Amino acid sequence: MHFVKAKGILSSQNGMNLYRGCTHGCIYCDSRSSCYRMDHSFEDIEVKENALELLEDALRRKRKRCMIGTGSMSDPYMQLELSLEYMRRALLIIEKYGCGVALQTKSDRVLRDLEILKRINAKTKAVVQMTLTTADESLCKIIEPNVCPTKERFEALKILRDNGIPTVVWLCPILPYINDTRENIETILQMCIEAQVRGVICFGMGLTLRDGSREYFYRQLDRHFPGLKERYIREFGDRYEVPSPRSDELMQLFHHTCEQNGIMHDNDEIFAYLRRFEEKEPFEQLSLWDFQRNE
After folding, report:
1. How many CA atoms are closer than 13 Å to the CA of 23, on its beta-carbon side?
2. Burial of 90 by CB count in 10 Å (0-12 exposed, 13-18 middle, 19+ buried)?
3. φ and ψ at residue 106, rounded to 5 degrees
4. DSSP assignment letter at 24
5. Which residue, among 235, 129, 127, has the nearest Cα to 180 in the 3D structure?
6. Which residues on adjacent β-strands are paired with residue 129?
7. CA distances from 65 to 91, 101, 124, 198 (A)
8. CA 279: distance to chain centroid?
9. Spatial distance between the Cα atoms of 99 and 122, rounded to a whole number of angstroms
10. What is the pLDDT of residue 283?
């Protein structure tokens, strides 16, 4: 872990990453790709030491309240968050300025901040996005070794449901010849149905590989699935998109199951939902006056 001073924190679409790098060890992680130009070890987490000051300044200047997204490049609930509490403090700032939040994680540590999420969600919208890739706990330990198992993520989704927090599941990536089975997809979708998730994001049954992430992925295939790397090279070469040979069948299953159970399954519709600010209750008058005064 090392600290840096960031020049800014919010993107043009109001996304942020408090950390850079990750310790989850997922074998398929796209954030390892060379195109992101990370000049340090991926597991040596870069902490943006001034992120909270930058966030408060950015929200103070906002003319309109909005949804704040986080977790797209680096999970905000890695182990170090337990001691640093950057995400927790960021949520308090988001709450202070009456904004909503759409966070993405693979960790049930998000439940630590449940009360803050509930307060945000009472005024606007706090959405938790959880990645689920395999219902096989032994396989989960291989492809996502340093994060809580699927069973614990599922339990977290149900707790969030019971507390009125809307959730979205990322059903990706689906790795050819590893977790691309009908049984796996059916089981994950049944979890989504039981947890009453609002939507399931799926970019197709497969994964993407770029320079940097491909080399790491192949090393892990050699380590855990002997012979499979050679099959990938033979079938996919250096392609960016690596589709499962069962993609058509599994996508049909995915769309049909979601449609039958009232779960959003169009990616554009889900992303529009995640970005859409919704005011449920009038923002407290004093806070609104303070907000306008600081524009």
Report:
1. 14
2. buried
3. -115, 10
4. S
5. 235
6. 104, 168
7. 14, 11, 10, 23
8. 23
9. 11
10. 55
Dist. CA 222–CA 104, nearest whole Å: 29
Length of the chain: 295
142 DSSP 8-state letter: H
CA distance 267 to 95: 27
The encoded tokens of residue 240 equal: 């960016």
H-run or E-run covering 208: strand 206-208
Sign of CA dihedral 42, 270, 111, 286: positive
Q: How far is residue 114 CA from its own chain's centroid?
A: 17
| DSSP state letter for 106 | S
64 DSSP 8-state letter: S
Residues in Cβ contact with 123 at an 8 Å cutoff, skipping those fewer than 6 apart: 98, 279, 280, 281, 283
Amino acid at 182: R
β-strand pairing of 206-208 with 241-243: antiparallel
| β-pair type (126-131, 167-170) | parallel
Condensed to tens digits (0 to 9), the pLDDT of residues 176-233 reads 999 999 999 999 999 999 999 999 999 999 999 999 999 999 999 999 999 999 999 9
Model pTM score? 0.93
* Locus of tokens 């339990």: 155
Average pLDDT, the chain: 94
Token pair, residue 120, equals 């945000």
- Output the CA–CA distances (angstroms, integers) from residue 189 to 163, 179, 252, in the order listed: 21, 14, 13
Cβ–Cβ under 8 Å, residues 294 and 60? yes
Residue with tokens 């009125």: 164
For residue 156, give the amino acid letter. A
